[in-house]
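dumping this here before i forget
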Amino acid sequence: MRRHLFAAAVFVMAAGPALADDAAISKLASDYDAWLLAEDPITAGRQGDRAALSKLPEVTPAADARRLAALKAFQARLAAIPAQGLSDSAALNRGYMAWELESRVGQIQFDTARMPVSSDGGFEDLLNYVASTTPMRGIADAEAWIARLEALPGYYRDNVANARRGIRTGFTQPRPTIDIIMARAKAAAAAPIEGDPLLRPFRARPDGVAADRWAALAARAEAVVRDRIRPVQREFATFIETEYAPAARKGLGVRVTPGGEAFYRFAVKDFTTTDKTPDEVFALGESEVARIRAEMLSVMKETGFTGDLPAFIAMLRKDPKFYAKSRQELLEKASEIAKRIDDKLPGYYGTLPRLTYGVRPVPPEIEAAYTTGRYFQGSPDQGVAGGYMVNTYALDQRPLYELPALTAHEAVPGHHLQIALAQELKDVPMFRREGGVTAFVEGWGLYSEKMAGDMGIYRDAYERFGQLSYEMWRACRLVADTGIHWKGWDRKQAEACFLENTALAPLNITVEVDRYISWPGQALAYKIGELKFLELKARARARLGERFDIRKFHDAVLLAGPLPMSMLDARIDAWIAAEAAR
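structure:
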């Protein structure tokens, strides 16, 4: 498998002897990687840094000021290295680093730490997620986890201090988002200690550890949760109710906050990696809604349904044949779809990851306000598989005709394939392997939903309608996100596109709109990225004709890690030229 990876990447790696400037880029990339890992103990621990396993990130203003100075110093070093004369791999490092440094500087300058909470998860959920992906192989792992638990109260208080700064500066969430956060905070503060997700790593005793020793470690962890974490969780719930809620921003959109217009412009640019304006994104969303709706009407007719689209959608939402009857049935259906896709992958993707993935339920403590599905990143270094998380809560809101598209997006050929391949890249700096380019990552996920059709995964018109409904969902995001945060829409206006044009269940629409309200700009990345992937594939087909190979195209897209859209565009142009010259 590794042989195929290098063969596919030859068009960017075979650049002859290293140039002098390549050495400067290589040193800068190495320094930047080391700095990032020092600032991010979660990622460092996942990659095998034993000392980092006991730490949590610093989130104080002093830490951000230190980071800002370091980031600007990296920018100055990067600017001093000319772009001319670099090998292709060094040019990728230089271009990506320039984009990422600008993004990180912008986030600190806008002081996004002031808003550390959101509708589907905030700082208070970080360690719950880490607990679900942290292996326990011995006493040292247990001691490190207990140390992280002991650090959690300070992490809570630092984030609350940041939120208080948000109150003072008028940069807060709106009341509907705060109500969700408040309910979640109160539930966590009142939850029984025995089932706390923070104790999940202690539920299975590792081989070679005596039962009494393990019981003592588990008891220590339980005491930390009971005596130190529960009190700070109660403090947090009280803070949200008595201080944060009364300071809620007056409108749903972030534009009403001080500096909100500039911040939203930044968010649009950051998440899409383009120079599109909010108005241009809104217009694109409207045109995509019209195009996809026409396709949905055509597929609806294939089913023999004689009514209009709203009636068809109403039928899909109510007919029990489209819904699983138990949580286990939903998980089993998702697993069967995942294995059918696995069976087709080699015909469409030249390089597959070594890391496997599992199909798991969304943890019960977060499922009520959580999205339909999500991907939890695994760790080749720690021996943790990726996780395709399926929400088994409210089964009458989880239609089976959407499940193939969801699986393609969250598992394969979507997030797991793309992220695991990036993790396994060799001779690529960590900052690119772990790159958080939302337009690439989520655009690839949405593109994968469409690819599942080419792979023969959708077995009937209802499942193909489900894929179109999911694509419409992302088109409506362009409209709703800009509508909320730029045009001042209310909730009813934001929900209208989804209710009128998608088959999404009402609960999903509510949860999703809550998410867009609390996370400005993120929802725009999916459609923007997908359209770029489709554009590049069409360009390659047109230029290469019969010589176009979908497996090689996908390798060219994936085997440099996630990239901003302009860099991806240039990379594929170079690949097309190299293929044409063969």
